[in-house]
Predict the structure of HdeD family acid-resistance protein.
Amino acid sequence: MAAHWWAPALRGVLAILFGLIALVWPGITLLALVLVFAAYAVVNGVVTLMQAARGHTGRSRAWIGVSGLISLLVGLIAFLWPGITALALLLVIAFWFVVTGIVEIVAAVGLRRRIEGEWVLALNGVVSVVFGLLLFVWPATGALAVVWLIGLSAVAIGVSLLVLAFRLRGGHRAGAAGPAHSV
């Protein structure tokens, strides 16, 4: 792995660039994510419809065809109305935070006699519910926050990959010289 130290270095640089682009242009980043999803959904729909038409599914051709048609339509909607698609995705994320938060609170209450520190699980649940509700109330700010999290995560990952790469590079050079022999 040390001989190919440049691979994590390249990945690190690309991750940092992606993260900085996401932080500097969050609107474009969000639009790009929606358009990538839209392209995937359209291609998936076309391929699924082709499978249904050819009968290479091993399952009901009608259901596979319906699935392909829905995927194709969702992809086209995402291309035509990217703002609505981004909002819908954000609302799904908000719903997920609220539901998982409620489940964690209920679990914490149920575990309060069996474990110590159940309050941490309950607190996590409360934070999840609050975050989900905030996404519902302020979806535009929530979308911006999600893009910023993606950008910051990409920069952090890029920095860690660069650190790894330079450690590998340093280890490769030391290993190339060979071990010192004492007589």
About this structure: DSSP finds six helices and no strands in the chain. Residues 2-173 form one domain. Helices lie at 6-24, 26-54, 61-80, 82-111, 118-137, 139-177. The chain has one domain: 2-173.
